[in-house]
Specification:
The chain contains 10 helices and 11 strands. It is of the alpha/beta class. The protein has a 9-stranded mixed sheet, sandwiched between helices. The radius of gyration is 17 Å and the shape is globular. The model has no long low-confidence stretch (mean pLDDT 96).
C-alpha cells in the first residue's frame, strides 16, 4: 500500500470515543495502512462528549467558515484537527454547534435516537467532502465505517458526481452489527431528495432502519466488507448478491493481510 491514499470516514474512532467494534476498527485499519507506508486521513464528527483539551483538538481556520445547506438551511461548518499520540495520524473533526454540541453521540439521556440524526448524517457527508476538496488531497479509496457516515457513498455518487477531484476514487463500506433500533426521522428521504438525489436510488430510506441505511450505502459503494460476525443474515445476503467485490468477515488477528489484499486486488 506504499503511497496509496486512503480516507477513513467513521462515526466513531478510538481514542476519542469508547471502544466498540466500529471505533476500534476505525483506528486499527488506518494504523495498519499507515504502518505499511500508505497515506491516510481520518474524519469523524466532533461530538460534545469528546474532551477537546485532553485530546488537543484545535480549529483549522483556513478550512472552517463555509456554510453547508441541509434541507434548505444554512449550517456553518467548523473543522478541527488532532493527532493520535505516538501514531503520526491526523484526525479531522466535522463540527457544528447545532448538530454536535451535545453530551452524547446518537441518543439522548433516555436512550432515544436524536430526531435530527438524519440531518447530522447529511451534514457529516457533505462536510467531509468539502473539507477534502479544500485540502486538495485526492484519495485512492474512501473507506466508510459506521451508520452516521453511511450517506457519504450516496453523496459521492450523486451530489458530487461531477467533481473531477474524485474521478478515480473508489468507495468501500464496512458493514457492522445493527447500530440502532427503529427508524431515523420519518422525513429523511425527503431531505436527501432535496439534494437532487434520484428517488429510485434511495427509496429504501422511506423506512430508515439501520439495515435499509446500510443497503443504500452498499448500493453506492464500489466494494463492501462484512466487518462484524453479528451482521444479520439478510444484510450479509444483500452484500453477497450486490454483484460487487466484498470481503467476508475476518477475525481481528487476521484482518491486516485480508484488508490489504482486498484493497489491492478488488478495489484499486
Amino acid at each position: 500500500m506504499e503511497d496509496k491514499r486512503i480516507l477513513y470516514v467513521s462515526s466513531e474512532v478510538v481514542p476519542y470515543l469508547a471502544e466498540n467494534e466500529v471505533s476500534l476498527m476505525s483506528f486499527d485499519v488506518p494504523k495498519m495502512i499507515n504502518d505499511r507506508g500508505g497515506q491516510i486521513r481520518i474524519f469523524m464528527p466532533r461530538y460534545g462528549n469528546i474532551n477537546e483539551r485532553r485530546h488537543q483538538l484545535h480549529e483549522v481556520i483556513r478550512l472552517s467558515g463555509m456554510n453547508l445547506v441541509v434541507n434548505d438551511m444554512d449550517m456553518p461548518l467548523i473543522i478541527k484537527v488532532a493527532s493520535i499520540p505516538k501514531e503520526r495520524i491526523q484526525v479531522y473533526f466535522i463540527d457544528n454547534d447545532e448538530y454536535f454540541k451535545r453530551k452524547s453521540t446518537f441518543t439522548d439521556e433516555d436512550g432515544s435516537l436524536y430526531p435530527d440524526n438524519d440531518e447530522r448524517a447529511i451534514f457529516f457527508a457533505k462536510g467531509v467532502v468539502e473539507t477534502v476538496k479544500k485540502l486538495n488531497w485526492v484519495p485512492d479509496i474512501i473507506h466508510v465505517h459506521g451508520w452516521l457516515a453511511s450517506l457519504l457513498p450516496v453523496y459521492m455518487k450523486h451530489y458530487y458526481k461531477d467533481e473531477a477531484l474524485f474521478a478515480d476514487t473508489k468507495i468501500v463500506t464496512s458493514v457492522y452489527a445493527p447500530g440502532y433500533e427503529g427508524n431515523l426521522n420519518e422525513d429523511m428521504l425527503g431531505k436527501v431528495l432535496f439534494d437532487q438525489v434520484p428517488e429510485a436510488s434511495v427509496a429504501a430510506l422511506a423506512q430508515s432502519t439501520y439495515e435499509n441505511l446500510m443497503k443504500v450505502a452498499v448500493d453506492h459503494s464500489d466494494a463492501s466488507i462484512i466487518a462484524s460476525p453479528a451482521v444479520s443474515d439478510s444484510l450479509k445476503a444483500y452484500v453477497e448478491a450486490s454483484g460487487k467485490p466484498f470481503l467476508p468477515y475476518v477475525e481481528k488477528e487476521n484482518f491486516a493481510a485480508a484488508y490489504t489484499n482486498f484493497y489491492k486486488n478488488e478495489v484499486l
